[in-house]
Amino acid sequence: MIQTDVLILGSGIGGLSTAIQIARQRPDLKITVLTKTNEGESNTRYAQGGVAAVWNEEVDSYEKHEEDTLDAGDGLCDVDIVKIVVKEGPERVREIIDWGARFDKNPKAEYDLGREGGHSENRILHYKDLTGWEIQRTLMAKADEFSNIEVLEHYFAVDIITQHHLGYMVTRLMPDIECYGAYALNKQTGEIEKLLAKVTVIATGGAGQIYRATTNPVIASGDGIAMVYRAKGWVENMEFVQFHPTALYNPAGENPVFLVSEAVRGYGGILKNRNGEEFMHKYDERKSFGSRDIVARAIDNEMKLSGDECMFLDCRHLNKEGFTAHFPTIYEKCMSIGIDPMKDMIPVVPACHYMCGGIKVDEMGRSNIQQLYACGECTCTGLHGANRLASNSLLEAMVFAKRIAEDILPKLIIFLSRIVFPIGMRRVRPTPRKWY
Ligand SMILES: Cc1cc2nc3c(=O)[nH]c(=O)nc-3n(C[C@H](O)[C@H](O)[C@H](O)COP(=O)(O)OP(=O)(O)OC[C@H]3O[C@@H](n4cnc5c(N)ncnc54)[C@H](O)[C@@H]3O)c2cc1C
């Protein structure tokens, strides 16, 4: 059995940011991060496009970023959450830069802000087409600086522990379900271990692997969402699954499929059919710049109408030097399957990319289960509504990690008393947390 103060399930941007935000304020707390493969393997690691944040206030504004987010979300975003994330986002981005993240700059030494579908301004900070890799690298290095963060690799969390495991009846309508930690399979020993914690944070990422074609790595199997559901916690909006319009079509079959970032369209790539004809004007006045759901549906429709197995992204008119500098990984990947983006159109298909729904959390990342928080793609914060605006998810994870830390820290002493007086012995029942 392992006892810890804060147990975090997942070592992507949600998990590691939360660990760092807590550790930097409270070196006395023991923080244990579990990850089911190695620390660096996550959806975060594969993010290409970047992080959206209002950076150049001469042309951009919080209002514009909010409007773009609400527009992409199709009227189903929580406006207050959108305002929080957009407003607090730039500070979190500055913080991760301070921690060592390198984002690309232009010759004037200003950040080279990219633009992606659905954004009305250039506001995407990026590191080549490897932004996620850079962020994962930065967070792992930063977490290493804190001796009170312990990362346990190859620990597969199986279930969170609640009163149910003490023999009590737990139902979805109970206001005072409590979380005491998690059971996890230690993959090296084959044993199930009990991890008791004063606070547990689920940051297990999305669920793309439930689809045949997905850009998500194999770790993205929705484990945290399922754990909370099984524990009778609240899960919301699982029907809103975002399909990325432009995954690389590889007839040989690949899992995960390779993503051709939206930034390629932002850079000038144009969607065309096999005959080299544009089609996006039939679906949206922004053409190739429409939001993801519109472009993905348009490609799907064109594939059905033509019977073709894919559509194409035409980059042949773009400057090779600029393209390879911005998109080295995409260029290399295309070349590896015999497609030269400077001579051939890149074949693309939509693929499952992002889970907009998940564990229902409030504005501080609290789930409806007490002592249980969630951060990152496994959550439904209300930011994305029916459809996520490109590059808003890394931002969301950073903003909520900070908020979770702020909410947890003053409470730890109270949580401690709950562990000392377990169920049945407790003198005062916890007051049900205000829930919307
Ligand atoms: C190809 C690709 C490109 C993307 N591009 C962008 C982009 O440009 N901008 C943007 O904002 N977003 C982008 N996204 C989305 C973004 O990367 C993710 O939403 C975000 O990284 C999720 O972070 P997370 O910390 O919530 O989850 P992840 O980064 O997926 O981390 C989940 C962690 O949980 C662990 N885990 C899972 N289950 C268990 C378990 N049972 N037990 C223990 N550990 C477990 C995993 O091992 C992993 O460490 C992209 C996603 C993909 C796949």
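^ flavin-adenine dinucleotide complex. The first helix runs from residue 13 to 23. The chain has a mean pLDDT of 93.
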